Structure formats: C-alpha cells, structure tokens
C-alpha cells in the first residue's frame, strides 16, 4: 500500500512539472530538477525551485492563519450546542461546533482531517488563478504528500483523481478528497464526540446558571 502511495505521489509530481512546462512556467532544464521541487518538500537548491519557495512560504503562512482564524469562535448557546447532536451537518455549519469538534479531534490525533477540510473550504473561496495554484500545491504538500506528518487518509482512487487534477489546478482540485474526509469524520469521529465526556461537559457548562453577584 505504501509503495502504491509513493508511486502516486511521484506521478503527481511529474504531472505538475509537465503542466508547468505546458504553461511556459518551467525552464527547459526542469527535467533535471528534483521531482519534489514543485512542492518545496525537500531542501533542493536547484534554480527552478528557488523562486517558488518564497511564494509557497507566503501562501503557507496565509493558509495557516486562515485555518487558525476559522478555529476561533464565540461561545455557543446551549441550544446551538444541543443541535450538534442532531446531525453532523449542523455541527459543521456552526463555527463553534467546528472549533469544539476540532479540539476533540486533537485528542484523537486526527486534527489534520478538520484542518484539511477547512483548507479546502478556503480554497473554494479563492478566485485568483495564480493564488489558487499556489494554495493547491500547499494543500498537497501539507495534507496529501506521503512525506507530510499531517497526511490525511485517502484511498488510491481519490489519490489518482488528485493526480489528474494537479495537471490543471482549480479550486475544485480536492473536492473528492474533501468529501471522503468529511464522510470519514461523520462516520468515525463524530459519534464518539457526541458520546464523549467533552461534549457532555460542554452542555453542562452551558446549562449552569451564571453565579449570583
């Protein structure tokens, strides 16, 4: 399985280099470059990767700030918190719900699932083609690459879809992957959260009357 993932990753890297050459953004000596230069996930010092690293670093910082900001939300009302138990959709539509659920995922060492989902939502809002391409590559590096410590769990079919989509990056490049991670959280982590002490304690804290002055 790991060997197959490495093969898919290498195919994706090759596909992106081909796409950049097609668009005229890759020098003719790009074929001699490290195959991972396009995503800056190695310390390669070849000339084709150096101009891109600054741009990717700026995009990464911007993406991290957006994801961090999206995890900060006001305290929910008791009715809002109770509605999260009705459906996963209600929880995900609530900023406070996403924040609380993300904290729970962190305790299960699967916070990357929410981070990836949020990054995909942020990508969908982008309209500038150049920025879209930069964000697509950053998301790939952070959550799809097998070299990333935050790699999300995707099956081979979805990885191959991403591989093809990387030829022409758009705001919909990771739609299939985002849906698969959404379903994974819904079926796996969400039921445990609703039945967890963390959710019970939250409801109890919201139901407690404020202390008398």
TrEMBL record:
Protein name listed in UniProt: RGS domain-containing protein
InterPro entries: RGS (IPR016137), RGS_sf (IPR036305), RGS_subdomain_2 (IPR044926)
Domain RGS, chain residue ranges per copy: 87-203
Pfam families found in the cross-reference section: RGS (PF00615)
Originating species: Poecilia mexicana
